Amino acid sequence: MKAIITLLFSSLVLLASETNHLQVKILETIITNIHLDKNIVVWSDNKNLLAELKKHNVLLTTNICEDATVIILQDKRKLEKECSSKHIFVLNYNSLSHVPQSFGALFWKKGRPNIVLIEPRIKSQLIKISKDLEPYLEERVW
Amino acid sequence: MVKKKELFLFLLLFLLGIFFIYVYDNIKEAKEDIFNRIEKHQVEQISHVLENIEKDILDYSEIKNSKDLLYLFENKSTREDYEHIISLMLTSNVKYAYILYKDERDRFRFLLDASKTDKANFYQKLDVTNSEYRTIYRIKKPQVIKQHDMENLYLTYLYPIIANDTVVGLFSIDITTNIQEIILESIKPLETFFMVLIISLILLMIMTVMQLFHYFVTRKKIFTDPLTRTFNRNYLEEISSMLNLSHYSIAMLDLDKFKVINDTYGHKAGDYILAQAAKVFKKSIRDSDILIRYGGEEFLLLINNRHKDSSTFSICERLKDNLSKQTFVYDTNEIKVNVSIGLHKHPALEKNMQEAIKIADRMLYIAKKNGRNQIVCYDEKSQNDISSSSKNIGFVKQALNENRITCYYQPIYCNNYNTIKNYEALVRIIAKDGSIISPLQFLPQLRHTNIYYKLTQTILLLVFEKFKHNEKHVSININFSDLINPDIENTIISHLGSNPHLASRVTFEILESDEIDNIKLFKEKIKLLHSLKAKVSIDDFGSGYSNFKTIIDIEANYLKIDGSLIKNIDTNDKDFKVVKSIIHFAHQANMQTIAEFVHSKEVFDKLLELDIDYLQGYYIAEPKSTLLEVHELF
Q1: ipTM
Q2: Judgement on whether residues B254 and B325 belong to the same structural domain of the protein
Q3: Which domains are assigned to chain A?
Q4: CB A142 to CB B124 under 8 A?
Q5: Which of B403, B406, B420, B426 is most buried by a 10 A CB count?
Q6: Cβ distance B560 to B596 under 8 Å?
């Protein structure tokens, strides 16, 4: 799995113009490697991203935030109250601080894609992750 | 020579294309070289700065291991101080500058980030995939990572912070592509120019190739005679400059009495025979020989003489025999045709191909004159004497202008009455040194030229002048083309019409020839001569196509039997019989007979046996400038 993520990273390096497409691919890989006690249904405030996920048909998606189990959040201001208790994955490192219930983030740092998963939040939200995601675990948000 | 021009143009364009590709490639290489030099320069500059900062860090805090470095930058104010120092390196080209630390789980973390944008937090993780991040810990040397346009990054320069011979952290400097882009932008017009130039050249080359292709496709049509499917004169012109004459013999081929076929069976039949004859020729030659339709029923054959399998003469013989054996059927008519061949075995000895063709043509003329269906080969040895003394048209023209044309007269003897019946006028040129030039040396070259007609006219005037005041009879050689020449006709009419006494003593010896292609006109002209009271003799009877009906119709006064039938009459029984028949025919047709080429007493006696009317030849008398008397004969 790590190899797949590395390959995805490399591909991203080579195909910078297709960042969005690769972002979707990485997100799909991350989400499929986490386990909840219920079905994972994804919703995102980023409509393009949601449409892309839908098109790929790898993850179950929904247009209604309440129906989702995992929320991929681009803009923290768009997080509806009814959905604030869901499992939230953010697309900005600082959002990890601003959205306390968010369990992980995918973001670009110095032009490189980065993944961070906050271990205590994962545990508290009863999220299980596969071994391949372990290198991305962090104790806290720095 | 379209092909040569096109090939030259194609080669030129090809070389130009190669040259421009070379220049374009060099520009590309120069661009890479400039990039590399800039990169090296930038890296060197950054390296020096980083070396100083590294020294400062190590000296300031006595760093011994990575933990010490971590503790150093845990202090916010220290971190901000160094971020400020490092940020001084930032330019439009140096985008990010930061220090990384490798934790116990081998993950890279920011210790400080001097970047103005996308700033990372202290101890924030940075996921890296390039192996150089780990290599630097092993080899302790700076590393350069080419980023291949990742997020506008051109390269990342990693510089190790070494304490106690251990890498405790590293500077990471991300350089953008800005300068390179500027250079690329500057070079682009030049690159575009060369690209357009190369594309234009390629297009031109394609056009040239297409033209060449078109040339080769149409080449066959251009160089092939549509009727005989042999090469035509265009091809001869095309190859003549590159042909090595020493590898070829030249033969001129002419179908015998082809006009008769045309006149008798029509032009379509003539075309058919021509095409069939060409087929026979092609089958009789080898692949390395070149058959060209030279014009009308005339062919030029270039015989490759480098083969040992057969001689050039044997090829000509094979060709002649194969045609003789053939009987062509056209519209239920069986038609046979022969070929006369003039061969020049060593054309390379001549000045050029045209000269060699002229000689082969002369040999063909001799073959025709000697009775057709034969090969006459040019013998350099014997012909050299002739050719060295052979005179060109200019020589004859000059002689005409300087009144150096004269006539010799050979008596035509009447044995029955021991009298001289006639004198045959034979043309000569008096050379400037006073020597006498025989007609053999200048007449063949004059055929069908205007000078020939002028010469005929001059002879007529000379003869008319000489004989107008005496009682002697004279024979003048004339051919059909002379008769239909208006100037010659006027000369004859004006001199003979006004002087019937002279006219009655003039005999026109007309060559029996296949040049007489308009029988009606021929008859008209003979009628004109008769009307002037002049006499008509058919010259060289027996060697031509002997249209008896025409000869009877024109009411010729004399038949002069061809010398080739006479010269061996004493030994050749067949010739004897033919001559006997001719004499019998002539007498039956109310014509008198003349035998020429009487060169010995034996021939003379034999002819007397046959009751010949008149005799002429060296045995009786040679041609002289004066009119010989009977007592001067023999």
Answers
A1: 0.84
A2: yes
A3: 2-138 (3.40.50)
A4: yes
A5: B420
A6: yes
